[in-house]
Amino acid sequence: MKFPTYDISKYTVRQLVALPIALLIVSFLFLGFNTLTTGMPVDPGIDFAGGVAVTIPPTADSQAVVEGYFSGYPLKSVGEGVNGGYYVVFEYMPDDEFLKLSEVINEHYPDAKVDQIGETFGKTLQAQALWALLFSFIGMAIVVFIVFRNFVPSIAVVLSAFSDIVITAALMDVVGITLTLGTTAALLMLIGYSVDSDILLTTRVLKRKGKFSEKMQGAFRTGFTMTSTTISAVALMFIVSWIGQIDVIRDISAVLLLGLFVDLMNTWMLNAGILTGYAGGDKR
Amino acid sequence: MSDDTDSGLINTLKDWRVALMIILVVFSLVSIYVIPPGISNGMTGNLQLGLDLEGGSWIQLSFQSEVIRFETDEDPEVFAARIGDALDAEVFLFEEDRIEIRAPFTREELELVFEENGGSLVTYEKGVSKDTADQIKLILENKVNNLGTKDARINTITGLNGVTQYIRLELAGVDITTAQEIVGAQGKFEIRIQTIGNESEHVLYGDSIKSVSTPTQSPPGSDVWGVGFTLSESGADAFQNAANTYGATSNPDAHEIMMLLDDETVYSASLNPQLAAELKTTPVRELRATTGAGEEGLEDAKKLEIHLRAGALPVDVEIAGSGTVSATLGEHFKVMSVIAGILALMAVAFTVYYWYREPAIVIPMIGTTVVEVIILLGIAVYIQQLDLASIAGLIAVLGTGIDQLVVITDEVIFEGRVPSQNLYLKRFNRALGIIMVAACTTIIAMLPLAVMDLANLRGFAIITILGVLIGVIITRPAYGKIIMAILSKKPGDH
User: Fold this and answer.
1) Where is the Protein export membrane protein SecD/SecF C-terminal domain (chain B) (predicted)?
2) Which range (A93-102, B77-86, B231-240, B418-427) has the least confidence?
3) pLDDT at A271
């Protein structure tokens, strides 16, 4: 087996946690700056901001032609899919205008998928999504503290999960994935994935007997197998939904994919680093 | 040697989780394809498919009304009536201290009016009471049925405080324009008067009806039900005129008053003597149609109320959100979802094989995952429609499932060998401990989404939670037993 070897005892605690902590701080500042300037940490999609999203199945029309049809409406963005389809987003518009737009869409692209969310409804969804995120996170933290009944390891797990979400959210904004109901669900799902590998690491290192570095090495093998397998499944989900123009699944899988890579770093540098500092290396 | 293998296999099958797993797979396949026969629906069998896979439209409506909890020293009925007058809006007292105001007002506006009338506003929420929501649902269902739509779902979305904020219509195979028409369309309501024999004459149309009350008993407490309604001034004149011209005031029994909705008679009765006498001299605006006594009278009154409104909703609605997917695109999404699922599974198989290089591990692992998906779908037939979001949930849960199978495998197999029975059980339980904790956190993380009604994300959360539960309770422990049985008879180990 060509397993990547990762000998954690080669590094000091400071070396291990430096990169994840730095990224966490940068991401946190980035999201904070966004919130101050735009009111939202990540650019919101129509679910939260209100507006209309149209998925146009493969067509021979060029982007200019598509834009031409919709020029009289508050067009926000036009994205071209790999299969020759388009994903068109409009800002919020009143009902009458939307009815007219519906006719235009129906005339040119009768097979399109259209979703419209009103501004107030978007606000309601936004508030609920925020609560969901908060409750999930607190619930997760409580479970972790009950299980480990040990302050430092619990904090390490909770911090890694928090960092997963924050860094992933920042990356989302950088690569241009908007915050929608789907991507919020993906961020919540990351809590689950993140804690999976963290709990494995913590249990192996704290509850097993043996040499610290060997336990860490064993945990890493299992953890890396886990995460790489999940990454392969999610990556294919991303590719198929991207080609197939299934926007909901494409966005969910893109966020999960980013999050899983972020989680690799947070588990094996941040969390492992804190545990090394706590339980001591072999020498101590 | 062969005896040994056989008894090992039988013992494995006897383990309750392995047995339950097999039973559930059979149950799921039967649910999806056999009872009721679902093969004719193709690959998806009896699975309930969401709009984005089936094609159709959805509309989510919000209400232009508020639910207010208030305080007052007076009789609540008297107070509510005065508030209604002050606001010139229809109000509906549905609990001792809660009213529904059927017109849009801000909290500030209402606070002022409540204070002026000697009460105070305690809570303010946008939406309608449960009763009104049920009535709106009924009206919409009637309209949808008239259209002959084969597959419609109408759900009210009610908060924990009992206030319904939204109502969501999902209409399969209907485009968005038709869906909008269904919500907006109103019937033609007419009152006619019997002249001679079967002949009748027009009196007024629905536009002369200013307001309609909810069913009430008259006199109060008599259990005789009816619906009150108010005519406009011109409507009242027309009504008085017709009643006098055709002789309904002098001989009520021979000249019944009929109500028609879309040219179909929905109610017919003669004027009561007092009203007949009154109409001889003055126009009457406040009228009342009595439907009868008891439960049946109440049911009829409810229907009549809907008819009197001519299919108009008791509360003005706004479209909060809507969407449509064509049948062709739905079919495309369906095919793509299946491809995504199969490829994701193959990717998992490939990755796991790459790390373990051991078919005796890889095959049970993939088998367990397939079984998990089948059971999940089988249960979903009964509780959850599958849409794109829940399919994403399905694949995501497949990811955590594999994670946990890896944890079990690595925990029990140490350096490629299966340990002795005792040590095995100890490690197996330790692995179960890890996956239980991980499962708990995933469930907790998804719980808010399952409880809150965030549109279709509920499906994602429910599928994820269900998948995790099936996994930790049944399939993953069963996998542990199976892999133990398989690996312990590997020749290299003897």
Assistant:
1) 316-473
2) B418-427
3) 93
Touching A: B residues 103-132, CB under 8 Å: none
Q: Which residues of B touch A233 (CB under 8 A)?
A: 344-345, 347-348, 395, 398-399, 402
* A137 → chain B, closest CA residue: B445
Looking at the predicted structure, is the pLDDT value of residue B3 above 60? Answer: no
pLDDT for res A73: 92
Residue A69 pLDDT grade (very low, low, confident, very high; cuts 50, 70, 90)? very high
Chain A contacts in chain B segment 409-448 (CB below 8 A): 410-411, 430, 433-434, 437-438, 440-442, 444-448
| 3-class SS string, chain A | CCCCCCCHHHCCHHHHHHHHHHHHHHHHHHHHHHHHHHCCCCCECHHHHCEEEEEECCCCCCHHHHHHHCCCCCEEEEEECCCCCEEEEECCCCHHHHHHHHHHHHHHCCCCEEEEECHHHHHHHHHHHHHHHHHHHHHHHHHHHHHHCCHHHHHHHHHHHHHHHHHHHHHHHHHCCCECHHHHHHHHHHHHHHHHHHHHHHHHHHHCCCCHHHHHHHHHHHHHHHHHHHHHHHHHHHHHHHHCCCHHHHHHHHHHHHHHHHHHHHHHHHHHHHHHHHHCCCCC
A118 and B320 in contact by Cβ < 8 A? yes
- When CB atoms are compared, the residue of A181, A196, A240 closest to B457 is A181
pLDDT in tens, A135-192: 999 999 999 999 888 899 999 999 999 999 999 999 999 999 999 988 998 998 898 8
ipTM of the modeled complex: 0.89
Of the listed ranges A24-28, A192-196, A280-284, the one predicted with least confidence: A280-284
Q: Which residues of B touch A84 (CB under 8 A)?
A: none
In this complex, do A248 and B392 lie within 8 Å of one another by their Cβ atoms?
yes
Cross-chain CB nearest to B441 (options A106, A195, A232) = A195
Q: Is the pLDDT of residue B86 over 70?
A: yes
